[in-house]
Amino acid sequence: MQYKSQAVAKPYFIAAIGLFVGQILFGLILGLQYVIGDFMFPEIPFNVARMVHTNLLIVWLLFGFMGAAYYLVPEEAERELVSPGLALLMFWVFLVAGALTILGYLLVPYSGLAELTRNELLPTMGREFLEQPTITKLGIVVVALAFVFNIGLTILKGRKTVVSLVLLIGLVGLAVFFLFSFYNPDNLVKDKYYWWWVVHLWVEGVWELILGSILAFVLIKTTGVDREVIEKWLYVIIAMTLITGIIGTGHHFYWIGAPEYWQWWGSIFSALEPIPFFMMTVFAFNMVNRRRRNHPNKAAILWALGTAVMAFLGAGVWGFLHTLSPVNYYTHGTQITAAHGHMAFYGAYVMIVLTMISYAMPMLRGREAANSNRSQVLEMWSFWLMTVSIVFITLFLTGAGILQVYLQRFSADPLPFMVVQDKIALFYWMREVAGLVFLIGLLTYVASFFVGSREPEATVAVAEKA
Amino acid sequence: MNTTEPTRQLIRPCTLVYAVLMLLTLVTWGIGRAGLSGLGVSLLVLAFAMLKGQLIGDWFMGLRGVRGIWRWVVVIWLLIPGGLISLAFILSYRG
Amino acid sequence: MMSNNMETSAAAPVGVQPATRPAYPPGDLAIWIFILAELLVFAVFFAAYAFTRMNHVELFNEYQATLNRDAALINTLALLTSSYFVMRGVVAAREGNNALCARWIWAAVAMGVVFVVVKSTEYAHHLGAGVSLSTNDFYMFYLSLTFFHFMHVILGMVILAAVAVKARSGGYSVEDHTGVETGASYWHMVDLLWLILFPLVYVMR
């Protein structure tokens, strides 16, 4: 760790991992409810479990992004953070607001939560992923503003690199597009239309910039390849991301009542969205193959390469599967979407945050560059457990989705939704088993922080023998 | 990357290429103005366009002096939309 | 692998004549990756136009007749001329003549201005006639394709202007003029796309 203020990243990372565990527990409850409908009812109904599962994901990823930014920016800007105190304060504000919101979901009926938080003053609740009470949303805006201010000023006052500028654009975009969550028009078409400006332009737009810059940072640090080479790749990748991703929003506008040209615009541009992800894969492997030195943190490099591959598969390939309008006509809102969602979020965003944690945490905990060999071996086990099980979750959901599309929408006599759900139950059971393996992987990951911490740090030679 | 051939010598052939490009454009425009249509005419116009694209790639973009796959990148690209457009026009005249 | 060049795209040493021709095109390889992606987008768009037309031949033929072919001719000639100017600019830069390079590149930008003005009057005419993306499939494609290309012309002009400004201040040399070639390659691509777009949308029927 070169700068003292980088230490503020640590609580963010710890909170992120904690919430990650929560997200997976609710995922398992939710997965079981697909096959045992009244499991934990009425304490945790399906809709609440789903809301907690998705909201926890977003919140912990945001914690991860913020932690990553607080760690990355001082090193790139070559100066301390403008205000480490503000960063810590915002950590507690965000954590408390997040915890209260989740408790609200769990303890009060959703409509009661809306009344309690005076939603009627500025109604923003009730939309998928944006379920948070208005007061929480305002809190998120405050946290985001303070965060962007802190990061932005540090960058502007220090050395400006492509990596940090791309990160800043991504973070500003993240904050700006979140503002559309306050726009809640009566017209249902417009409502959905602008809802995607938050959801899509986050995950297929500005978040990809954050992903790209974090990946570039970790690769610069671990491979020793020239910064100029990595920056050039970053430029090309983000340019393609923005060209395909922004107009690609159209793939959400097929069936909501938006004009017909979106069928074409959405299909053509989003069909090309895998390209930047493919470039990212080629990029990561190239840089690692051309490394100038062997970094002792093997686990971090494994995560970085894993991100590049899984983001391409999950976001790129599984996204392409159902992005063309004639295909989406049949697959819209089926388990195909769920399959894509799981692998894309894991491959792109979960893994990039874990990459950054894997790289930064040893230093934050006082190591020179890497954890002990034993800790790394355990962490790499967790990598494989989680990654392989998410592949299986995706495959099972894809199987469920294909069957669902056929039985419910494509066959000569389509069956009703619930009848089909019964017929694909086997896939849901297998998904649940894969989910359990994922939890084991996650617990292994957590354990890797407590194992071998008294043992000496891994060195290049030792790490290579392993 | 710097080219290795003496650059002065590029100007004369490129000027000739420019004249050919202008001429083919006028012919294409003339075909449109004369109201000519039909599969043969359409494919001819398309062939002119692909020839023009290939001249741009070879001479203006300088791919003529490159070896390997990059030498053919524009030609290969032209064949993709060119082939698909031809196919669509052939099918529409059949059907 | 492509990255080999991304590291050293600035230069084969001058005066050393490699026995073989270069393996990579002029300009920064990054721009070529970008050009490939752009070409792919347009290829898909062109094919979509042709196959949609296949199912609506009469509609497409009818509304194609409402387009201004003369304006398209002027624009094609303008882009071809600008590409020629850019080529002259590259030659000047390779010889280390920054002032001449800047003049040629500015001339190319001026041709770009011609294109933008002519295309804008076409758009004004159509929009004035109440045409929109939702009018019919032909206009949807006409407006989408040409406008997407139009944005590329503007981006290309910005890139060329940046090159010209740098050349004017003596920023290139016989040893290092990758920047000129990079901008030139992008501009030629803009021209190349229009060369397919013009016959496809305005002439073929």
Characterization of this structure:
The complex is a heterotrimer of chains A (466), B (95) and C (205). Chain A contains 17 helices and no strands. In chain A, helix 1 runs antiparallel to helix 16 and helix 6 (162-178) packs antiparallel against helix 7. Chain A is an all-alpha fold. In chain B, 74% of the residues lie in helices and 0% in strands. The mean pLDDT of chain B is 91. By secondary structure, chain C is mainly alpha-helical. Helix content of chain C is 76%, strand content 0%. Chain C is elongated, with a radius of gyration of 19 Å. Chains in contact: A-C, B-C. At the B-C interface, helix 1, helix 2 and helix 3 of B face helix 2, helix 4 and helix 7 of C.
List keywords for this structure.
heterotrimer, B: mainly alpha, 3 helices, C: 205 residues, mainly alpha, Four Helix Bundle (Hemerythrin (Met), subunit A), 7 helices, disordered N terminus
Topology (elements, then pairings):
The complex is a heterotrimer of chains A (466), B (95) and C (205).
Chain A: H1 9-35, H2 46-77, H3 84-107, H4 110-116, H5 134-157, H6 162-178, H7 188-223, H8 227-248, H9 261-271, H10 274-289, H11 298-321, H12 325-331, H13 335-364, H14 373-410, H15 417-423, H16 425-447, H17 460-465
Chain B: H1 8-33, H2 39-60, H3 73-94
Helix pairs in contact in B: 1-2, 2-3
Chain C: H1 3-8, H2 29-55, H3 57-64, H4 69-94, H5 98-128, H6 137-168, H7 178-203
Helix pairs in contact in C: 2-6, 2-7, 4-5, 4-7, 5-6, 6-7
Overall shape of chain C = elongated
* Main sheet: strands, sense, barrel of chain A: none
Derived structural class of chain A: mainly alpha
The share of residues in helices of chain A is: over 70%
> What is the mean predicted local confidence, pLDDT of chain C?
90
SSE pattern of chain A, N- to C-terminal: HHHHHHHHHHHHHHHHH
Oligomeric composition of the shown chains: heterotrimer
Unreliable residue stretches of chain A: 462-466
Specify the number of helices of chain C: 7
Give the overall shape of chain A.
globular
Taking the alpha carbons of the first and last residues of chain A, their distance comes to 26 Å
Q: Assign a percent range to the helix content of chain C.
A: over 70%
